[in-house]
Structure formats: structure tokens, C-alpha cells
Amino acid sequence: MIDTPDTPLGVVDPLLDWSRDSLRDLPWRLSRDPWEILVSEVMLQQTQVARVLDRWPEFLAVFPTATECANRGPAAVIEQWAGLGYNRRAVNLWRCAVEVRDRFEGRLPGEVATLESLPGIGPYTARAVAVFAFERHAGVVDTNVGRLLARWTGRPLSSRQAQALADDLVPAGRSWRWNQSLFDFAEAICTKRSPGCVACPLAEHCSWRGTGDDPAVVSAGVSKRQARFEGSRRQVRGRILGAARRGDVPRSRLLELARPDDTVETLEGIVADLVAEGLLEDDGAIVRLPQI
Questions:
Q1: CB within 8 A of 109, min separation 6: which ones?
Q2: Quick one: pLDDT at residue 226?
Q3: Do 21 and 144 belong to one domain?
Q4: Beta strands 249-250 and 286-288: pairing type?
Q5: How are strands ordered across the β-sheet holding 286-288?
Q6: How far is Cα 262 from Cα 233, in angstroms, rounded to an integer?
Q7: Catalytic, out of 36, 41, 187, 277
Q8: Last residue of some domain: 85, 117, 134?
Q9: pLDDT digit string (tens) for 80-97?
Q10: What total number of domains does the chain contain?
Q11: Active site includes 41?
């Protein structure tokens, strides 16, 4: 391990014991299909589990494979993504599907480095697919796992330190179970605002134990409060994209979708951003969802 605090190996057995009766019953956990796992992971980025529970099977019913997704085109994916937010994820998922179809005959690869070479797949998603679809030996570090690691070691961690520590903790042959256990323990016990330190089954192996400043607060990768959506630029983007999902949008209608203080220049900038991100096409008279 490189440049990482001492590994709290004592957490491994009690956490696996805790998870024996405590893992959430989530439908994507029954799958080892790499495409299905990728779709779940992309959906779960900044979207609550409760919303994804319904939308994941609906999406897969329309796009059961990467090849089907690639062939249908970006507009179909954006339409199906309605209500999930952060629509760039939909475009990136389609772009990824195109490369999987063209480079890998429709089958996602299982190696982390190769997965990271695909559009829209960063270090976290690459490891999640490698572990949850292929059961590769790797740690999967999201903001919740980063919180656990910082608290267990009792100090803030850089992204590099957190990933190295997560990799070191994975028990041989149990990467799938171990990483799922981390997610659920962070959700149920070691929560962000009200950690259950008193009854925590890992307390004796934790350096923080709820005493003093929380080291996770200043650790790399810990999520920050999002800016208000109501009245924001993001809301206007959503309105324009929502209108485009219903059909071509004449440019003369854009002001109807704006905030009271938005200028024509502001709207032009928003539309230009949506076009640059691959979410819209603009021919000067109308804006529409992108076509193949």
C-alpha cells in the first residue's frame, strides 16, 4: 500500500458478520450481467435508490443490451431518462454503449483499466462494474465508503489514500459481498449526520467513534450540499430538455421556459451548453433531441 494510514483490518470480519442478515434486497444485486450493472450504477449516481428501483427495470425493458441501446440512438435514451436528472449521464451511457458495440461486440469488458477507457466511465463506475459483474478483487469507493474509511482511520484521506486503503481491505474471494456490505453499513449505521456509534458492531476497531471532529468532513470525495434547484440554471435546462422530449421546440418558445430575469443571451448560453453536451440539436429555428 502506498501513502496510506494503517489498515484497520479488524473491521473485516465483524462487518461481514453484520452483513449476513442486513444487506438490502436490491434487484440489481441479483444480476451479474455487466450491462445491467452498468445501468444501475449510472442511475444511482446522484439519484435516490427508491427512484431507481422502478426505473431500472423499465429502462432495461427498452434497452436490454448495450447493442440495443447503441442502435436506438441518443434521443431514445434521453427520453427514457426523464425524471432521473443529470441527463448528461444518459448521453454518456449511450456513447459508452456505442463503443461497447463497436469495440467489444456488445459485451462490456471486465478489466478496470479497459472500462475506464469507455465514455462516461470513471474510476468508481469502472470498479463497480468489475466487482459487481465480474467479481474482480478491488475496492469500490463512493462518498459513503470514503466516510467509513476516514472514520475508521480517524483522519482525513486523500482520494489516493482512500482507494489504496479500500483495495487493501477487500478479503480474498469476497469482493462482491464486501463492497456491498460497505455500502449498506454506511447507509444503515455509519450515516453522515447521525452515526450509530453507541451500538456500532465495529466500534472497537474505529479510531473516531463519534468523538471530536469528524475526519470524514474534510476528506476527499465527501459530497457537499447541492445548490438550490428551484429557480436555478439547472431548472431552466430541465425545462428546455423536457419540452424537447415532447417534440421540436421553436426558438421563439424558449423565453416561455426561462426565469423572469433571463436574457436572450442567457438562454443562448444554456442552449449552447446543451448542444455541446450532446443533449440537443439546434438548427437555428428549432431545438430537438439529437438524432443518430
A1: 115
A2: 57
A3: yes
A4: antiparallel
A5: 249-250, 286-288, 281-282
A6: 9
A7: 41
A8: 134
A9: 999 998 899 999 999 999
A10: 3
A11: yes
